[in-house]
Write a structure and sequence with these properties.
There is one protein chain. This protein is of the alpha/beta class and 412 residues long. The chain starts with 5 loop residues before the first strand and ends with a helix.
């Protein structure tokens, strides 16, 4: 179907982190459909010969890290939590990808999550290939943050950043914003893919991407890998009572990241009868002991897909209380394993969860509504609907033809 296409997928990691998982799924699925896909990464985890490492000069990179640190110490005059992760300009990297582009000679360069010193965005100027950028978060169209926490200043030129407690219109967020605007104007042609309708709509309101074509194509998932397992056996293995409803929560640092909304889940559980529910948490090592009345299964970090599929399968309900979210892998995986989801009615959640059909959309930032959703799903069996919805909208045979047609349209 797509045997003449040659695609280069660029992402910082091969499999670590949500964006990496989604990008790697796209890479593997494209190859299944006959597309000549190569993945270019800074950190490789597998033996896949089609995943290529960026040449990494450690001495030069150390110098670049020091330069970035000096810039940040100068510009971050006011304290900000996780500023190293929140604001990373990607304008000073010492890594180079032009040599890889020249050697691989792709028809299209498809960027995904490219932070953490992967390469200098300026390298894509006058590259002679169409550049596609999938939006895994808001960073490509903000002055530095990956999620804006609702401030909306990216619609103009950023500056006066509330995350920095800044009252300066020309703070570092404004400087990064203006530098990005200059670079994007020199990367031609540049096409934007929003993984959710929400992030598409948000990107369209940013002056950074005002001249770019923006289209919504979601992530895909292998529904042969992610499917419902034997719930009874799996619950026995985990030591979960079959008499109780198992509520699942998780994600990378889901407990520690305020955006993931763990505090709302805690408040919601406090409104439920602990004799009827148990909680399982994955993706975090340090789970606070604040649910004395609830039995909590701390599962830690799960690297194995089969084990993760088993965890989804034995849960009755997944809760995703994020207050800002693009297109969550966790939600898609849970639904594929026939486990319905309770989440706030925000962002990309609306693309995957249809209220009281395959899950429950709660009122934003309402622990009471979250608790009502958990209770409602505990009484209504939506497992078949959950699985069918993913098969109809996000399975490989549904999504990958959309990507192939999009690539071909660009080349034509």
């Amino acid at each position: 179907m797509g045997n003449l296409l040659k695609i280069l997928i660029v992402n910082t990691n091969e499999n670590r982190g949500g964006a990496a998982i989604a990008a790697n799924r796209l890479h593997c699925s494209l190859r299944k459909f006959g597309v000549n896909s190569t993945m270019l990464v800074l950190a490789k985890d597998s033996s896949d010969e089609h995943v290529v490492l960026v040449h990494n000069n450690r001495i030069k990179n150390k110098i670049c890290w020091e330069i970035n640190a000096l810039i940040k110490r100068h510009d971050f005059r006011m304290p900000v939590q996780n500023s190293e992760k929140t604001y990373f300009s990607n304008l000073y990297s010492c890594n180079h990808i032009k040599r890889h582009i020249k050697r691989i000679d792709p028809d299209i360069i498809h960027l995904h999550w490219v932070n953490d010193n992967l390469f200098n965005l300026g390298e894509l100027r006058r590259i002679g290939r169409p550049v596609v950028w999938s939006l895994h978060d808001m960073w490509p169209f903000t002055g530095g943050c990956h999620y804006d926490c609702g401030c909306g200043r990216f619609r103009d030129d950023c500056g006066r950043c509330p995350l920095l407690n800044s009252d300066q219109s020309d703070d570092i967020t404004n400087k990064i914003y203006r530098k990005k605007k200059q670079l994007y104007g020199e990367i031609k042609p540049l096409y934007i893919l929003g993984l959710s309708r929400w992030i598409c709509d948000s990107a369209k309101t940013s002056s950074l991407l005002s001249e770019c074509k923006i289209k919504n194509i979601p992530n895909c998932i292998d529904t042969k890998k992610y499917r419902q397992g034997d719930r009874i056996v799996l619950r026995d293995d985990l030591g979960v009572s079959n008499e109780k409803t198992l509520v699942l929560f998780g994600g990378v640092d889901g407990v520690g990241d305020p955006r993931k909304g763990f505090s709302y889940l805690i408040d919601a559980l406090m409104q439920l009868d602990p004799a009827k529910y148990e909680l399982a948490i994955f993706g975090s090592n340090n789970v606070p002991e604040i649910l004395n009345s609830f039995k909590v299964h701390n599962l830690g970090f799960i690297r194995n897909v089969e084990k993760m599929v088993g965890i989804y399968s034995c849960a009755d309900i997944l809760v995703l209380p994020s207050i800002q979210e693009n297109l969550s892998n966790v939600v898609m995986e849970s639904l594929a394993c026939s486990t319905p989801v309770v989440a706030f009615d925000i962002g990309g959640n609306r693309d995957m969860i249809k209220h009281k059909h395959n899950g429950y959309l709660a009122k934003i930032k309402s622990a009471k509504s979250l608790a009502e959703g958990i209770e409602w799903l505990a009484l209504n069996d939506l497992r078949e609907n959950a699985r069918c919805f993913v098969q109809d909208h996000f399975a490989e045979d549904v999504v990958i033809p959309q990507y192939i047609n999009f690539y071909r349209d660009l080349l034509n």
